[in-house]
Amino acid sequence: MLSALEKQILIDLWHKLIPVAEDIGSEALYRMFTTFPKTKTYFGHLDLSHGSGHLRSLGKKIVVAIAEGTTHISTPLFTSSLGYLSRYHAYQLRIHPTNFKLFNHCMLVTLACHLGGDFSAIEHAATDKYLSAYSAVLAEKFR
Amino acid sequence: MVSWSQSERSAIADLWDKINVDEIGPQSLARVLIVYPWTQRYFGKFGNLNSVAAILGNPKVTAHGKVVLNALDNAVKNLDNIKETYSKLSQLHCEILSVDPDNFRLFADCLTIVIANKFGAAFTPEIQATWQKFLAVVVAAMSSRYF
Ligand code: HEM
Ligand code: HEM
After folding, report:
1. Under CATH, what is the fold of the domain A4-142?
2. What is the 3-class SS of chain B, one letter each residue?
3. Where is the Globin domain positioned along the sequence (chain A) (predicted)?
4. What CATH code is carried by the domain that includes residue B15?
């Protein structure tokens, strides 16, 4: 469960990232592909080189989606607002659920690199919980 | 058996050289206790772990964080023999401390994030990949004496 304070921390943190969404999102993806090469199997149709147009455009969409989700944390709207992405990842893309953990970890590493002192244990804990909740929704339609 | 290329060996050695164990160790242990609170169950003797501030200011957490990270030095120095190097330590965590080995990976993840936080862009995706390959071997070794 995220406290009201954690919710505010997350709203502030993710909205600050929207202007650099392409950088953050593409770096998180590239870190995932480099550290966990098996994740590349889902992206065979894209150019996966560092900073490619494909990675920047997908990375931006991902960061914006995560930022928008912060508005609905701990409200009944949270799950329903992610309905499209949840159906997409489950029925069309069919991503094995363990990959969400790998992506979340690489996103945390990316934030740690970029945010320095603004990514203390408190922001780390709140972001970890939020990304777990978010990917649980993306994976919940699988079964 | 894991094999290490020359460039992986030097990437690990270079990164390890830059790590201040007394700084990174306590921060990593504190983060695992804060981000994954169930890990607190093993540290009942450490006194107050009731809040983020209490954990960050707890001298026993600081001291133990140094002990754990110093133990990692043995793995860096014995890359080809990590499993044997941690045999006794794995047995201790299993038989005496009864630590659920799934927590080793959580500690490793927190350590990686603390390092990323410290070194920023210098912690490149390629260095991260090699470092996490190393930590995966450490985690497997720490889990190897559980039956
Ligand atoms: C919290 C985690 C994640 C979020 C927020 C997220 C979000 C998104 C978004 C917003 C899109 C674009 C949808 C569109 O174009 O309308 C997308 C596409 C996609 N996602 Fe995810 N995703 C996540 C995790 C993952 C993971 C772990 C994988 C696989 C390892 C994955 C694989 C894909 C693929 C293959 C596409 C389609 C790419 C393309 O063809 O352009 N996603 N995701
Ligand atoms: C890579 C991971 C780890 C390494 C290398 C490591 C290393 C060590 C070392 C060197 C000691 C001191 C042993 C001695 O006194 O002879 C120790 C003690 C201990 N470790 Fe670990 N450890 C790791 C992960 C963990 C995790 C994840 C937990 C629990 C969540 C844990 C719980 C403990 C406890 C409870 C003690 C005893 C502390 C005390 O009473 O002083 N360890 N560990």
Report:
1. Globin-like (1.10.490)
2. CCCCCHHHHHHHHHHHHHCCHHHHHHHHHHHHHHHCHHHHHHHHHHCCCCCHHHHHCCHHHHHHHHHHHHHHHHHHHCHHHHHHHCHHHHHHHHHHCCCCCHHHHHHHHHHHHHHHHHHHHHCCHHHHHHHHHHHHHHHHHHCCCCC
3. 1-143
4. 1.10.490.10
Residue B67 in any domain: the answer is: yes
Domain boundaries, chain A: 4-142
ipTM above 0.90, yes or no: yes
The residue range of the domain holding B115 is 6-143
Number of Cβ atoms within 10 Å of the Cβ of B98: 9
Residue B1 maps to a domain = no
Mutate one of A109, A123, A130, A132 to test the B interface: name it (highest B CB count within 10 A): A109
Say yes or no to pLDDT of B139 above 90: yes
Predicted confidence (pLDDT) per residue in A82-94, tens digit? 999 999 998 899 9
Gap from CA of A67 to ligand 1 centroid (Å): 14
Among A113, A119, A122, most B C-beta atoms within 10 A, so best to mutate, is A113
A119 near A111, Cβ under 8 Å? yes
- Within a domain: residue B73? yes
Residue B86 lies in a domain: yes
In the predicted model, what is the mean pLDDT of residues B8-23? Answer: 98
| Residue-level pLDDT at B145 | 87
In 3D space, the residue among A115, A17, A130 whose CA is nearest the CA of residue A73 turns out to be A130
